[in-house]
Structures are given as C-alpha cells and as structure tokens.
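Hello, quick one for you while I still have it in my head. A protein chain has come my way and I'm curious about its shape. I'm sending you its amino acid sequence along with the backbone structure tokens. I'd be grateful if you could look everything over and explain what you see. Here's the protein in full, and shout if anything looks odd to you:
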Amino acid sequence: MGVVLAAPPDAPDGSRTGNILLREYFLQRYLELHGERDLFPSTTLPEEIRARKMDPMAERFVEVQVDQFIDDVEQKLGAMKSDVAELESVRREAVSARSTDAPAIRARVRDLAKNVGDRAEDLFNMVAIVAIELQPKNGPRPSSGSADFLENELKFLEVQVGKAEARLKALFLAPTHTVGLDELRGDNVLTELKAIEQVSNDIKKKTAP
C-alpha cells in the first residue's frame, strides 16, 4: 500500500509517537497483519489522508509499537553507555593498581565488553529492520600502539558510542523524523554500531585467559 504518514494532526509537539519513519514502518506491519483495509474512511485524495485521523485500531497499534521501540532504543543505548563508562573505570583502576594481568580484572573487562557488543548488535538489528535503505560501510578501527591496557580501544568506544547516540536520536528519538536517510549514507548509525560491536569483540579476545 505504501502509505506515508505525517505525525498525528492532534499530537502535541514533542510527542514520542510522532516519529514519521517509525509510524510508517509500524503501519506497514499492521497492514501485513490485518490486510489492506480502509485505514482512512471516506478519504480518497493524498492531501486528505494527511488531514484525517487514521482508523482507531491501526492508530493504537502504531502508537504502542512506536512507544515500545523508542523505549527499547533508550534502554539499550543507556545500558551501552553505562557499560562503556564502567569499562573505562575498571581500566583506569587496573592501570593505577598495576593489576592489568589479574584474572578477575580481565574477566570483568570481558563481561563488560560482551555487554557493550550485545547492545550494539541489538541496536544494529533494530535500525537495520526499520531503516532498510541504510547499509553499513567499513567503519574506522582504533589505532594500534603501546597505550596502557586497552586505552586506545576505550577511547574509540567512547567516541563511537557518542556518534551512534547522536544518530539514533536524529532517527528515532526526535519528536518527528526530519533527517533524510540520504544524509546518513556515509558513516551512518549502522557503521557506528558495527564498529562498536567489532571493537568490543577485540577487547574480549585481548583479555581472554
């Protein structure tokens, strides 16, 4: 059917369910479940579609799904940022105490790195399903060198998580989707998330027994 939605006409500014990209995606899911029924009764012209409310059942489905999607993005993004911050704290303490080879320290680093990689993978899959026009490119990798105990990797993760957060907010966490996908085709959010996942895997390998 290919219906393109604007934000609900009666939604207040700042409504978290007004994201156009997500609304269109979940409307298409509704159509797959319920068939191409008349979502906009007594409406035939495209300009009239944008001016009328959608079928209440479809609107409710879209709002619930968009709200849940945004909740999931916020939760996974917050958890990933928290784990990266804790990784850096553990790294600094280990360097200060000269205990970077301690099995308990390395096990803690591996666990945190796994968490970061898992969150990045989850977010990658969520974005890839909704923004199907985006394709990941080859992302940057941390520079090698003799920095103290994963310093380069942690600096890299902090930068990449910051970039991914900004792009996720632009795509999904703004009240309306105003960023065109063509603006994100270079080093896009999928690129950032894939790089985070790959470097997290590198950290796990470097701290393996």
Summary: Helices lie at 20-34, 46-51, 56-96, 103-130, 151-173, 189-206.
